[in-house]
Design brief:
This protein is an alpha+beta fold. It is built from 2 helices and 2 strands, in the order βαβα.
Length: 66
């Protein structure tokens, strides 16, 4: 059995995410008989994500700041 896991509600990894999802989740999956567990990291500081975030913020603040 295989499982790929990601957290779409988070835009960056933190210690809590890593501990609960990447480490504990893997242990629980393997204990239940799973064989391949793949944690997909958050977007973090990927240049494309930072640019997309800048564009979203710029669009949402249009007219509020110069």
């Amino acid at each position: 059995h295989q499982l790929d896991v990601f957290c779409p509600g988070f835009v960056s990894d933190c210690l809590e995410t890593m501990e609960e999802i990447a480490i504990s989740g893997r242990e629980q999956f393997h204990a239940a008989g799973g064989t391949q567990y793949h944690y997909i990291p958050c977007l973090n500081t990927d240049e494309y994500w930072i640019e997309a975030l800048r564009l979203i913020i710029q669009q949402q603040l249009a007219g509020w700041i110069a």
